[in-house]
From TrEMBL:
Keywords (A to Z) from UniProt: Methyltransferase, Transferase
GO molecular function annotation: methyltransferase activity
InterPro entries cross-referenced by the UniProt entry: Diverse_substrate_MTase (IPR051052), Methyltransf_25 (IPR041698), SAM-dependent_MTases_sf (IPR029063)
Residues annotated as domain Methyltransferase: 52-143
Region (Disordered): 1-31
Origin species: Iamia majanohamensis
One Pfam family recorded for the sequence: Methyltransf_25
GO terms, biological process: methylation
Protein name per its UniProtKB record: Class I SAM-dependent methyltransferase
Length: 254
């Protein structure tokens, strides 16, 4: 296996912004490649007048969708380039975003108990200390308000990811590349940049959330619609196992 994948996985393209910042729709929030979006899953609720924190906003597609729905949006990303794309997307849509350059655990600029919804799509896959992120999100959320996030499904990555990177699909049925409990980070080619994703089991994610003070009320494994998978080479693995894991946790008292 090569040090870097020869063909980025669908979630790599999903999280990587296109040059014009329009890789994802700006009228609805999405959770992953080929799976139902927020219009169908309805995990966030009515956003009119709500304060929404978009962690790892990328080019701002979801942030713009939230603003169009009447939310007051704080869009957070560590990349200045991505935030510039988000600014351009907001300008095109004639909506206002508060843009903050920061990592997902660097939320000192957000007051405690001031956020109604926290959303993140695939951005937390690169985080090493996810417990710290969950603690910070718990601090800024209002009581009983949700954190909704998606990640590459830990079972799907067993078929396509190893410790040195991703392996592109072939015409043969998918084969296992790593053990389910192997937490060795692996390399992803994301938008031309080599980044490292940290695999976690579903149980580990559930435990981290509950320890941080969240009650998990939704754990979804939506099947991918082959017609919506842009790269047909990945449609076969997605037919075997779900590509994306979506979780919702509500803030409880500690």
């Amino acid at each position: 296996m090569s040090d870097a994948p020869s063909d980025p996985a669908p979630w790599s393209r999903y999280t990587a912004a296109a040059p014009d910042g329009h890789d994802r729709p700006t009228d609805v929030a999405t959770y992953g490649p080929g799976i139902p979006d927020e219009a169908e899953l309805r995990l966030l609720g009515n956003l009119e007048g709500k304060r929404v924190l978009d962690l790892g906003c990328g080019a701002g597609s979801a942030s713009v969708a939230f603003a169009r729905a009447g939310a007051k949006v704080i869009a957070v990303d560590p990349s200045a380039d991505q935030l510039e794309l988000a600014r351009q997307a907001a300008e095109e849509a004639d909506v206002r975003l508060e843009l903050q350059q920061a990592g997902p655990a660097e939320l000192a600029f957000v007051r405690a108990d001031g956020i109604d919804v926290v959303y993140s799509a695939y951005a937390l896959a690169e985080v090493v200390d996810l417990d710290r992120v969950f603690r910070q999100v718990h601090r800024v959320l209002k009581q009983e308000c949700p954190l909704v996030f998606s990640l590459p499904h830990p079972i799907f990555t067993m078929f396509v990811a190893g410790p040195r990177g991703l392996e592109a699909p072939t015409d043969s049925p998918p084969v296992l590349r790593r053990r389910y409990h192997d937490d060795t980070p692996y390399v992803v080619d994301r938008g031309g940049d080599r980044v490292t994703d940290v695999p976690r089991t579903t149980g580990a994610l559930f435990t981290s959330l509950t320890r941080a003070g969240f009650r998990v009320d939704h754990l979804l494994e939506p099947p991918a619609d082959r017609a919506l998978v842009a790269d047909k080479a990945w449609a076969e693995p997605m037919a075997w196992v779900p590509p994306t894991l979506v979780l919702r946790g509500r803030k409880q008292g500690l």
